[in-house]
Design goal:
Elements lengths: L2 E2 L7 H10 L4 E5 L5 H11 L4 E5 L4 H9 L4 E3 L5 H10 L3 E2 L1 E2 L2 H9 L4 E4 L7 H9 L6 E4 L5 H8 L15 H6 L2 H12 L3
Parallel strand pairs: 1-2, 2-3, 3-4, 4-5, 6-7, 7-8
C-alpha cells in the first residue's frame, strides 16, 4: 500500500496515475499537509480507478472530512474510543492503528479483525507480528512504518499480514521532481512482492 505525503497539490493526480500505471491501484494519502484534503478531492475526481484512502486520521473531524473529500477507506496511526466511534460512523472501511497486544485486543473487542500495525519496524517488526499470531490468529495487519523493499517480504510471508504499506513507493524527491516514471517503476516492483 503506497503511503503518500502530498505537499504540492499539483502532484496529487500524477502520483495517483503513476501508481495505477505501475500496477498498484491503491493509495493511502496522509492528512499530514495543508493540501491533503484538496489532494483527496482531486484524485477522487480525476483518477476514479484508484482505491483512495486517507491516512494519519487522528481526530473524528478528520475522519468525516476525509470521507467527504472522497476517501473510500481510512487509516489511523492509533486508536481512541472517540476515534473508533467516528470511523465506524463514516460507514467506510478503516484500519485502526495498533502497536501493542492490548491495543489489538481492544480492536478485536470492537468486532474488528483488520488493523494497521504502526510503527512496524520500531515496534518489533515481523518477529513481533509472528509472535502475536499465536494467541491472536484472528487479527490481520497492514504493517507500516520503516518498512523497505528489502524487509517487505518478511512481513508478507506471515499468515496474519494482508499487505504492507510504505512511503518508499513514492519518495519525496521523486514527487518533487515529477519523476512519475520512477514512481510507476517502484509500484511495479512492489506489486511483484510476495
Amino acid at each position: 500500500m503506497p503511503v503518500v505525503v502530498i505537499d504540492d497539490l499539483a502532484a496529487a493526480v500524477p502520483v495517483a496515475r503513476a501508481l495505477v500505471d505501475g500496477g498498484l491501484p491503491a493509495i493511502e494519502l496522509t492528512l499530514r499537509t495543508p493540501v491533503a484534503l484538496d489532494a483527496l478531492r482531486a484524485i477522487a475526481a480525476e483518477v476514479p480507478e484508484i482505491t483512495l484512502g486517507a491516512g494519519t486520521i487522528t481526530t473524528p473531524a478528520q475522519a468525516e472530512a476525509a470521507v467527504a473529500a472522497g476517501a473510500g477507506f481510512l487509516v489511523s496511526p492509533g486508536l481512541t474510543p472517540d476515534l473508533l466511534a467516528a470511523m465506524l460512523a463514516t460507514g467506510v472501511p478503516f484500519l485502526p492503528g495498533t502497536s501493542t497486544v492490548s491495543e489489538v485486543l481492544a480492536v478485536l473487542e470492537a468486532g474488528l479483525t483488520e488493523m494497521k500495525f504502526f510503527p512496524a519496524e520500531a515496534a518489533g517488526g515481523a518477529p513481533y507480528l509472528k509472535s502475536v499470531a499465536g494467541p491472536l490468529p484472528q487479527a490481520r495487519f497492514c504493517p507500516t512504518g520503516g518498512i523497505r523493499p528489502e524487509t517487505a517480504a518478511s512481513y508478507l510471508s506471515l499468515p496474519n499480514v494482508g499487505c504492507v504499506g510504505g512511503t518508499w513507493l513514492t519518495p519525496a524527491d521523486a514527487i518533487a521532481a515529477g519523476d512519475w516514471e520512477r514512481i510507476s517503476k517502484l509500484a511495479a516492483e512492489a506489486a511483484a512482492l510476495r
